[in-house]
Task: structure prediction
Amino acid sequence: MQQYHKCQPAVMWQRNIIILSIVSALPACALQQVSYKEDIHPILDSNCNGCHIAPYGYGYQKTGLDMSTYHSLMKGTIYGPVVIVGDSRRSILNKLVEGRAGNLQKILHDAENEEITQKEVETIRDWVDEGALNN
Ligand code: HEC
Result:
């Protein structure tokens, strides 16, 4: 019992610290939105646009997918969009970089994608889930 009394204030103090730090972290988290200009464009430019740029990129010539601007990225391929706004699970863009594109994966970019980092893959996922904004 005596020990319980001794410990109580310390525990309370720690709890307050934890609650305080969660509360003060919240506004920062809410503001941390992925930016197309700052984050996504540079990732696609350095990893993908060697091939996905009009008119001579190999990937562009094969699919019509030019990822050099927001609008051309959102236009997608000649078959349709590669970004489903708000749904990275179903977006082919995310499936490809995450290695979830099944048979397509082998035909497309197994080797080429080795350069892209896990952090970049997650950034693209968050951007799509946050609404794929032109921000
Ligand atoms: C070395 C060239 C090259 C690089 C680099 C490259 N791609 Fe591609 N990409 C292609 C080619 C070629 C195709 C078409 C394959 C085919 O249909 O035969 C393609 C197709 C695609 C498609 C269309 C899939 C569909 O719906 O048919 C997407 C999406 C795509 N690439 C995304 C990316 C992303 C994202 C990156 C960067 C992480 C990237 N590509 C890097 C060459 C490349």
